[in-house]
């Protein structure tokens, strides 16, 4: 018979009683043993890093990860729930950097990789007890006495084994992927790591003239990353928008989006003359493959070495009429949209920025950090 529930029930006390009952009677272990002959349903916990405290967001993920194995167990499956600890990654290294008073990859290497790694191995268990208590409190069932640990050699070797099998099946290939990157740490970043330090900043954009081949005219293109211009290999327009060839009051002839003419060239107007005169109109798709001259000579040898053609107009619907000129500069080594356009048109892949975020020696600005521009600040 069930006991009557008091209207003055203390839920926290009741939860602790249930938790104690589960622990004393080894209910989790019995739930595993009772399904020992059932069909296996393998569930490995995506492991947390124990050098950071659990927070309210982890409650949701713990609950969701607990629901699925419980459901499968109720359906008769044998669900071994092996807990794990993520002992690699940037958060661990940053914590140890602060502890040792280091700043960046070079100082870590000077300090010594082996002693640094040992400090990381110690740091990673800082809040292990708190995580275990937290998991019990939310009713998360997992084998925490025999967890898998990502810095364990057996775990590392299993990853190499899996990679070898993937290679043997012909499923491994070399390519390029656009990811966030930290020049201070000298490492790519996950979207989660970027979000940890996310903030809004103001950046200068640039409007650049690209000389049209065979014409006394220029494509007027816009970019928010001027430091990628040495790696430029294409320009991109929206195929469905209207573009104009105009004679501007500054004496130049430009190609740009009709919708943005007043916004970009309007300031050139005077009492005696308009800012521009429209010569011709085109759909963006009509400009596709129209060629222009490279901004920098340093890009030519790279294109020739890769035996790929660049420096022409491409089309993609991601180009909008809200900012800029309606023509954007394309450098496939930087930015997901650029990379997508680069793959579609088989553009050259030109990377003129090194691991420290400095422009490389092939460019006229060798050694300059990308966010600083020229030494004179221009």
Give keywords.
single chain, 378 residues, alpha/beta, Rossmann fold, Isoleucyl-tRNA Synthetase, domain 2, five-stranded mixed beta sheet
Description:
With 378 residues, this protein is α/β, with parallel strands linked by helices. Among the domains are: 11-87 and 124-170, HUPs (Rossmann fold, 3-Layer(aba) Sandwich), CATH 3.40.50; 206-345, Alpha-Beta Complex (Isoleucyl-tRNA Synthetase, domain 2), CATH 3.90.740.10. The protein has 12 helices and 13 strands. The chain has a 5-stranded mixed sheet, with no helix packed on it. Strands 1-2-3 form a 3-stranded parallel sheet, with no helix packed on it. Strands 12-8-13 form a 3-stranded mixed sheet. A hairpin with a 4-residue loop joins strand 4 (181-182) and strand 5. Helix 4 (90-100) packs across helix 6. The longest helix has 19 residues, at 56-74. The model has no long low-confidence stretch (mean pLDDT 90).
Name given to the CATH architecture of one domain: Alpha-Beta Complex
Instruction: Tell me, briefly, the overall form.
Output: elongated
Strand % is: 15-25%
Runs in which pLDDT lies below 50 for 5 or more consecutive residues are none
Q: What kind of assembly state do the chains in view correspond to?
A: single chain
Order of helices and strands: HHEHEHHHHEHEEHEEEEEHEHEEH
Annotated CATH homologous superfamily of one domain: Valyl/Leucyl/Isoleucyl-tRNA synthetase, editing domain
Might you state the CATH topology name of one domain?
Isoleucyl-tRNA Synthetase, domain 2
Strand order of the largest sheet: 6-7-10-9-11
- Quote the average pLDDT: 90
Biggest sheet: strands, sense, closure? Answer: 5 strands, mixed
Rg computed from alpha carbons, rounded to a whole number of angstroms: 30 Å
Q: Count the helices. How many?
A: 12
Task: State the helicity in percent bands.
Answer: 25-40%
* Distance between the ends: 82 Å
């Amino acid at each position: 018979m069930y006991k009557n529930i008091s209207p003055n029930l203390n839920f926290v006390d009741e939860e602790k009683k249930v938790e104690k009952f589960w622990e004393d009677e080894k209910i989790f272990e019995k739930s595993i043993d009772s399904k020992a002959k059932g069909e296996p349903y393998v569930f490995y916990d995506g492991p947390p890093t124990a050098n950071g405290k659990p927070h309210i967001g982890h409650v949701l993920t713990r609950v969701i990860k607990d629901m699925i194995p419980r459901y499968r167990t109720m359906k008769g499956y044998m669900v071994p729930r092996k807990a794990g600890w993520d002992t690699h990654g940037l958060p661990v290294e940053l914590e140890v950097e602060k502890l040792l008073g280091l700043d960046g990859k070079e100082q870590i290497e000077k300090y010594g990789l082996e002693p640094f790694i040992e400090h990381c191995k110690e740091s990673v268990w800082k809040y292990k007890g708190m995580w275990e208590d937290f998991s019990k409190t939310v009713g998360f069932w997992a084998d925490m006495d025999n967890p898998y640990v990502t810095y364990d050699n057996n775990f590392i070797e299993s990853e190499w084994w899996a990679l070898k099998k993937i290679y043997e099946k012909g499923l491994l290939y070399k390519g390029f992927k656009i990811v966030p990157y930290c020049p201070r740490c000298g490492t790519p970043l996950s979207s989660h790591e970027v979000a940890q330090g996310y903030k809004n900043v103001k950046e200068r954009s640039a409007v650049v003239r690209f000389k049209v081949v065979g014409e006394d005219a220029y494509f007027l293109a816009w970019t928010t990353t001027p430091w990628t211009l040495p790696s430029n290999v294409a320009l991109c327009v929206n195929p469905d928008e209207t573009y104009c060839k105009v004679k501007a009051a500054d004496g130049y002839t430009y190609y740009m989006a009709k919708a943005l003419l007043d916004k970009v060239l309007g300031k050139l107007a005077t009492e005696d003359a308009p800012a521009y005169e429209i010569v011709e109109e085109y759909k963006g798709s009509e400009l596709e493959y129209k060629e222009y001259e490279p901004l920098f000579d340093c890009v030519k040898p790279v294109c020739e070495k890769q035996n790929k053609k660049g420096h022409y107009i491409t089309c993609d619907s991601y180009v909008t009429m809200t900012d800029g000129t309606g023509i954007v500069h394309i450098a496939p080594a930087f930015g997901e949209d650029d990379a997508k356009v680069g793959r579609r048109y088989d553009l050259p892949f030109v990377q003129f920025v090194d691991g420290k975020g400095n422009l490389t020696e092939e460019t006229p600005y060798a050694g300059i950090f990308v966010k600083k521009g020229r030494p004179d600040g221009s």
